[in-house]
Amino acid sequence: MALKIAVLASTRASDMQGIIDAIKRGYLNAEIKILFSNRKESYALERAKNNGIECLFIDSAGLSREEYDEKIIKELKKRDIELILLIGYMKILSKKFIDAYKFKIMNIHPSLLPAFAGGMDKNVHKAVLDYGCKITGCTLHFADESVDGGPIIIQKVCEVEDTDNENTLKEKVQNLEVHAFIEAIKLFSENKIKVEGRNVKLLK
Questions:
Q1: Where exactly are the structural domains of the chain?
Q2: Residue 185 pLDDT greater than 90, yes or no
């Protein structure tokens, strides 16, 4: 049976395209059943439509974090979702959401956590450059109630070169993000991810 995945996105969900391609070529035995966005103008919704994936905009106006998450949980349960991917999702999840899908929610962050936690997109790459880092990369981790603080699953690294700027660094790191997602989804689908406290063991 193909692993049933849901994606939560606020912006473009660029990493999702690489996951879709890996599914199409048969590398991943998985299916993205639905994409949710909290922003009506998000290109992620268009990307989902273009790939024949069900998509749903849920407006958060006037709702508490818990009320909003309850709406999403309801839709996830309808579709028997087994794994949730946060791709540029700009909302902090409630305790109720985390508890309902403990160690089944993966978030990507464009730095080597715990360095530069809390930032988004190009702000992170700017911070990396301003600090003078020689290496950077991405971190895929299980989401918890903290911001970018859950147990780390996979980290991918690249060099920061003298010629790099925010745009070139974003491109490099985004490429790593796709590989991290694909690797983790495959391991998850094969029950090869084991969490012990803060340590995530990847079984061979």
A1: 1-101, 108-204
A2: yes
Give 105-127 pLDDT, tens digit per residue.
999 999 999 999 998 889 999 99
pTM attached to this predicted model? 0.96
| Cross-strand pairs, 85 | 7, 106
Task: Select from 94, 81, 93 the least CA-distant residue to 7.
Answer: 81
- E strands within the chain? 3-9, 30-37, 54-57, 83-87, 105-109, 135-142, 152-159, 193-196, 199-202
Reply yes or no on domain 1-101 having CATH 3.40.920.10: no
Q: Which residues are catalytic?
A: 109
Average pLDDT over residues 160-168: 97
Residue from 174, 176, 170 nearest 156 by CA = 176
In tens, the pLDDT along 55-84 reads 999 999 999 999 999 999 999 999 999 999
Q: Which residues contact 75 (CB under 8 A, 6 or more apart)?
A: 34, 36, 56
Class of residue 176 by CB neighbours under 10 A (exposed 0-12, middle 13-18, buried 19+): buried
Span 108-204 CATH architecture:
3-Layer(aba) Sandwich (3.40)
